[in-house]
Amino acid sequence: MIDVRDLHRSFGGVTALDGVTLAVAEGERRAIIGPNGAGKTTLFNILTGELAPTGGTVRLAGEDVTGRRTFELARRGLARMYQRNELFDPLTARENVALALTAKAGPYRFGGIPADEARAADELLERVGLAGAGATPARALSHGQRRQLELAVALATAPRVLLLDEPTAGMSPAETARIAELIASLARSLTLLVVEHDMDVVFRLADRITVLHEGKVIADGTPAQVRGDTLVNEVYLGKVIAE
Ligand SMILES: Nc1ncnc2c1ncn2[C@@H]1O[C@H](COP(=O)(O)OP(=O)(O)O)[C@@H](O)[C@H]1O
Ligand SMILES: [Mg+2]
């Protein structure tokens, strides 16, 4: 579903990605881990078309999409839940999801949400554990609820590939458990790429793990292979698990 070859990206003198190659199968759940500054978000920004690579290629479902823009990739079934916040604060939870549903259907119609769209939005809210919060403005939701809403917004486009950048960032242990369970309950046909620092979540969720360090892939394998990798333990796992 995703095939990345020899990806490079630099910012001035800083090399963020230095020859990254990885392939993610359809329906696979792939975690991307590594220390801060490893290049994880840069990789996601290239995969979603927000950044162009300075070298290398990206294929999506067999098609070369290198340098394609975000809306073109969204049209091909790619969605993303951001590390930063992307909600419309004054709008209700239902309106945020309905907007994402409408974005797929055509231009937004002012003057209220049509009934069928409101129903579809409420179904998505229920799926992410926000049943009953439909009329609550996004700004009045807790941090954990906002992340749940962001997941509903991402799912509203019915993606084939979903990228999650640190879905548990800033969450309490209870909120983390809840969103991890939600992600685990997503359809197995959905291809999932997750950048995540919580290793319990990573090892529970991932079919395979790619480890980035200083812009390079230093390991790529099953959770058991990555856990047993000496270099990975030296540069990353040894530190985060000891924390
Ligand atoms: N827009 C940018 N401008 C300059 N440097 C950047 C930019 N984005 C990322 N970098 C640099 O690229 C490297 C990788 O960053 P990033 O992809 O955010 O890593 P991660 O998400 O793994 O923490 C870092 O050294 C970071 O400072
Ligand atoms: Mg990051």
Report the biggest beta sheet as strand number plus sense, adding barrel if it closes: 6 strands, mixed
CATH topology description of the largest domain: Rossmann fold
Order of helices and strands: EEEHEEHEHHHEHEHEEHH
Name of the level-1 CATH class of the largest domain: Alpha Beta
User: Globular, elongated, flat, extended or rod-shaped: what is the shape?
Assistant: globular
Mean of residue pLDDT values: 91
Annotation field: number of helices: 9
Could you explain the architecture of this structure?
This protein is an alpha/beta fold and 243 residues long. The protein folds into two domains: 2-77 and 159-242, Rossmann fold (3-Layer(aba) Sandwich); 87-144, no CATH class. It contains nine helices and ten strands. It has a six-stranded mixed β-sheet, with helices on both faces. The protein has a four-stranded antiparallel β-sheet with strand order 2-1-4-5, with helices on one face. Strand 7 (161-165), helix 6 and strand 8 form a beta-alpha-beta unit. Helix 3 packs across helix 4 (115-127) and helix 3 runs parallel beside helix 5 (143-155). The mean pLDDT is 91. It binds adenosine-5'-diphosphate and magnesium ion (MG). Magnesium ion (MG) binds next to helix 1. Magnesium ion is lined by residues 40-41, 83.
